[in-house]
Amino acid sequence: MLRITDTRTGHLVEIPAAPRRLLRSCVHLPALGAGTDDGTGIGPLHLRVPLIGDVLARTAELNGLQVITVLTTPELTPDRARALDRVMAVLGIHPPTVIGPHRPEAALGGPADVHVTAGDTDPGDLADGARIEVGRVDTTVPEQDTAAPGDSTAPGDSTAPGDSTAPADDTPAPADDTPDPLAVRLLLLGRPYGTPVTVTGAALAGAGRTLRDWRRSVADWAQQPSRPVPADLLGQSHAALAEDLDVAAVLALLAEVAGRSDVPAGAKFETFAHLDRVLGLDLARDVGHQRPTGP
Q1: How far, in Å, CA of 23 to CA of 16, rounded?
Q2: H or E segment at 278?
């Protein structure tokens, strides 16, 4: 069972309604602005809304559902459409069917079960289906920071999800660090989807460190005998995802698992690999690219 909070009623609702096993999801891209630095009009909120739609689809598939996702957009120039495709690909967002500013029923094959929208925009008449409103993304990027659009953290919090060693100040990353685009994904997933987040370069650097540490650990664990995902971890993580897409709880669980001595290395590997099906952080990327740790 997959349940989300319908922001129009404040109540948890099951999507799709049982016993149907097909989820029809409609993601509504906010109108693009003209004031972004890269000239495309694509800002952090335009990344966060389809990202939440992507996580919703991945979670539904993990629960054995079939998913159809469409993306409604404002009128886009060819350049902006290509830029949107590129940035979604870089963030690991599975490409939805893009149908422009028109109604999505034909592409979905019926009424939407859920609409994913920006919380401060009006996507029009959404009489059918539940509604997920995605919180705004603010940007506060000092000149010395190395932030990219989409770098986010809770206001006043400079630590990255799962990174207990991130600095409490705005110390920039070393000059030879190449920003990982998936660090943006990690940051945007590190807070509940309806919660506003603030962009900082320090948070992006912290998320990049977390990804490097996790990938290095996953590559090391992969060299040990495989073990099944512990039942308690599987139950906790699936329950968090199924109950209003609590990805932040899953990230916290992974950070805890990484440091637990009672969980075998092979089980840690399988846990991270399994949950990365939803997180989309490419956590097994370095497997096979490190020196063996044993005989």
Answers
A1: 5
A2: helix 265-279
